[in-house]
């Protein structure tokens, strides 16, 4: 029988201010991966629809989706069938919105579906975390919701809580890219004890603010001393845009993942906040585009 597999994976925003490398949220913007088997001997071919057509490799040996598929097939002791892979990309690539996690999680799920369906959600999380190096994007991509994760010696654990529709997430992505590598290099080797305590209190307050739906307190929970002060300088006009979001009515704002996307949180005035952020970038000669999103509480799924 000709095999067809279709997977949909949400965008994610990692860190959430104070939860560096630990907290993340899944958002209602999706990449899709469609695998359709082709005749014997045709190998793997890739087609990209949507974002990243000029930058994402079409060579299956260099593409993150097909690399993850191959890796899982090998783990399952089988070869992938030949097939055509269509990537429908809506998550802005290389902007701190989880495009690489979506590629890894989606590729793992497609590869597993074609070679045995051996993996549980926990396995997808562990494999994807090991490939990505940190779990804060792959966890919400896999489980949906607001996730907090820990890494143990050879595994990772995640708790996910659902987030209601009353909270909106406004993401604004400038045309400039900030590589995760550069953003990690901008961080200091160590921080002082008081900064560590500051972040522990903020991130626990962040999670309890979500549990109790005290979104009015988000501005405090997003405060951070581990990465935002170092990374905001890599995004031209970044601090002004974060401030403009709050001035326009956002409950708080921060860097999404390692940037360059900035994210604001709101329960009203979403359109005005998005416009204020885009206009502030524009006032500094930087074009940007925005999305008004909700939390995705499902995570990556097989379709059909
Ligand atoms: N936690 C990672 C970082 C996420 O901030 O470097 C990368 O998107």
TrEMBL record:
ATP binds at residues 92-102. This is Homoserine kinase. It holds the Pfam family GHMP_kinases_N. Catalyzes the ATP-dependent phosphorylation of L-homoserine to L-homoserine phosphate. Residues 227-281 form the GHMP kinase C-terminal domain. SUPFAM superfamilies: GHMP Kinase, C-terminal domain, Ribosomal protein S5 domain 2-like. Gene3D superfamilies: 3.30.230.10, GHMP kinase, C-terminal domain. It comes from the Bacteria. It comes from Megasphaera hominis. It is found in: Cytoplasm. Its EC number is 2.7.1.39. The gene is thrB. Belongs to the GHMP kinase family. Homoserine kinase subfamily.
């Amino acid at each position: 029988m000709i095999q067809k597999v279709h997977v949909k994976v949400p965008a994610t925003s990692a860190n959430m201010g104070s939860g560096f490398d630990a907290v993340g949220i899944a958002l209602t913007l999706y990449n899709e991966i469609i695998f359709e088997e082709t005749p014997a001997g045709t190998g793997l071919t890739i087609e990209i629809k949507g974002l990243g057509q000029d930058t994402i490799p079409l060579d299956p040996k260099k593409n993150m989706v097909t690399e993850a598929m191959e890796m899982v097939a090998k783990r399952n002791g089988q070869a992938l069938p030949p097939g055509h892979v269509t990537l429908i990309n809506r998550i802005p690539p290389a902007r701190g919105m989880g495009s690489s996690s979506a590629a890894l999680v989606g590729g793992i799920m497609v590869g597993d579906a074609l070679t045995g369906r051996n993996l549980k959600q926990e396995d997808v999380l562990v494999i994807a975390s090991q490939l990505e190096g940190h779990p804060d994007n792959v966890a919400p991509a896999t489980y949906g919701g607001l996730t907090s994760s820990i890494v143990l010696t050879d595994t990772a654990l995640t708790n996910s809580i659902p987030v209601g529709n009353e909270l909106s997430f406004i993401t604004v992505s400038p045309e400039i890219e900030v590589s995760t590598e550069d953003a990690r290099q901008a961080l200091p080797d160590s921080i002082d004890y008081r900064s560590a305590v500051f972040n522990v209190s903020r991130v626990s307050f962040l999670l309890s603010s979500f549990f109790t739906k005290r979104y009015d307190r988000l501005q405090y929970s997003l405060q951070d001393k581990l990465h935002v002060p170092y990374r905001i300088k890599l995004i031209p006009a970044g601090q002004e845009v974060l401030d403009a979001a709050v001035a326009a009515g956002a409950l708080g704002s921060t860097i999404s993942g390692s940037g360059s996307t900035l994210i604001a949180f709101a329960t009203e005035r979403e359109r005005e906040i998005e416009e204020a952020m885009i206009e502030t970038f524009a006032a500094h000669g930087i074009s940007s585009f925005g999305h008004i999103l909700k939390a995705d509480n499902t995570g990556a799924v097989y379709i059909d």
